[in-house]
Write a structure and sequence with these properties.
Length: 457
């Protein structure tokens, strides 16, 4: 099982190589805490067990920086998960083959026969194993992480209970797919010794801006309760295609999942309620920068609503493409049914994936090994005793693709999160400042009242 469950678009690499043993981002100190407006109320700390630290987390993986892009060397890692509801009573190898996009069809069978998969602490070499509720699954895999931009992580504010950072684009918040060290949590851990941080909310991989972490259970509970009660005011800025209308534009189109394995959403009648309030800040006649207040936090909400309004985010590799129909999904009109749209989006994503050509010998080798009796690897084989090249690893047997630099960054930035008790914000991103001198940015207040300048979709 090569855990490459892609939820985001591919990214590109440069050409000129700069070797490094310590990242430029790591050499720079975290910025000083920014201004904090108010503070969450203190709550009584309770006696609780400390969070467990993952002792298997790789801390010294070599890397290089190429034209400002950070590339990790491949390394061996333990993947851990529990059975999902949809996996129960299904064959393990069938689930892995269907749910992980970039695996060879025979990989799960071969990995199982080699003893690389364990369930509930025991090696599983039976390819007919059926998942049960509560199964704990572990898999030793050869990990090839996607590259990211070599940006520093700026601290906006920090207290004994809370860490607030300005998330750079290109980094996922937490481990997913082919990202682990190259995540916000991973970089904070490897380069700054921050462990046991609790994610209070998420931002898409290519999105930048305000990101909050709790340092303990009590703060995590307190903040998430206020989030659940709708007390958070969430403001973003985005750059969209075309001349966006003046005045407030309210979009309340429901959002539902289109492609589960990729996390791609769309407007659909059976989706969940969602509300975004757009307001144009400026336009150059071809693109517009908008402030967006969101009352809900659906996956890819702003991206989907911007697409629905006919002004998709500039350069959005997922939602600003012709695969959504002649009008790119405006008004939820795709020109095809959801099943066909799902298939088309999946195929378009595969066509723009990280891999170019697979070694034909690899495909033949995997076919052969899947049909043979294989000798399981010793249980407990350590990463340092494993080879740097793995003959059954797909990523070791493909030519990497150079993809556009736009895959690293989305023109979507979380500008400000606040309640009546606290407020954290960043500076306006550079791409939103072209005509920014004409506007004195003030916090927007959404009262829910409808004015004659409000357009509702």
């Amino acid at each position: 099982m090569n855990e490459n469950k892609e939820k985001e678009e591919s990214e590109c690499v440069g050409e000129n190589t700069e070797e490094a043993t310590t990242s430029r981002a790591a050499k720079r100190e975290l910025s000083s805490p920014g201004k904090e407006v108010g503070r969450p109320s203190k709550i009584k700390k309770k006696e609780a067990k400390e969070d467990k630290v993952d002792d298997d987390f790789p801390m010294n993986v070599p890397f290089k920086v190429v034209n400002g892009v950070r590339h990790l060397s491949p390394y061996w890692a333990m993947y851990r998960t529990r059975t999902k509801g949809r996996w129960i009573n299904r064959k393990m190898v069938e689930v892995f083959s269907q749910e992980f996009l970039s695996t060879n069809k025979n990989y799960a069978v071969v990995a199982c026969k080699l003893g690389r998969i364990s369930v509930n602490g025991k090696q599983i070499t039976d390819v007919n194993y059926i998942f049960k509720n509560g199964d704990r699954i572990e898999h030793w895999g050869h990990r090839h992480e996607h590259p990211v931009k070599d940006y520093a992580i700026e601290v906006i504010a920090e207290t004994e209970d809370l860490l607030v950072v300005n998330k750079p684009p290109s980094l996922p918040v937490h481990a997913c797919g082919q990202y682990s060290i190259h995540t916000v949590l991973g970089q904070l851990r490897v380069h700054h010794g921050r462990t046991n941080l609790r994610v209070l909310h998420r931002l898409d991989r290519a999105t930048s801006g305000v990101l909050l972490f709790a340092k303990n259970y009590e703060t995590d509970l307190e903040f998430k309760q206020t989030l659940k009660l709708g007390e958070w005011r969430k403001e973003y800025v985005c750059k969209v295609a075309g001349v966006f209308p003046e005045g407030e534009v309210v979009c309340e189109a429901p959002i539902g999942t289109l492609v589960i394995s990729m996390g791609i959403q769309c407007v659909r009648d059976d989706g969940k309620s969602a509300k975004s309030v757009f307001k144009r800040l400026w336009t150059d006649g071809q693109t517009s920068v908008c402030s967006v207040l969101i009352e809900t936090g659906r996956t890819h909400q702003i991206r989907v609503h911007a697409q629905y309004l006919g002004h998709p985010i500039v350069g959005d590799q997922l939602y600003n493409t012709d695969v959504w129909g002649p009008n790119k999904g405006k008004n939820g009109e795709y020109g095809k049914g959801y099943d066909q749209l799902c298939e088309d989006v999946r195929n378009a994503h595969k066509a723009s994936s990280w891999h170019e050509t697979v070694d034909p010998d690899y495909e033949a080798r995997m076919e052969r090994m899947a049909s043979e009796d294989l000798t399981p690897e010793p249980a407990g084989l350590r990463p340092e005793d494993r080879p740097s090249y793995d003959e059954v690893c797909l990523n070791c047997n493909v030519t990497k693709k150079e993809v556009p630099a736009g895959h690293f960054q989305l023109f979507l930035h979380c500008l400000r999160y606040e309640t009546t008790k606290w407020s954290y914000e960043t500076e306006m991103p550079e791409w939103a400042r072209e005509n920014y001198w004409k506007i004195k940015m003030q916090p927007r207040v959404f009262s829910g009242a409808i004015s004659d300048k409000t357009t509702i979709y």
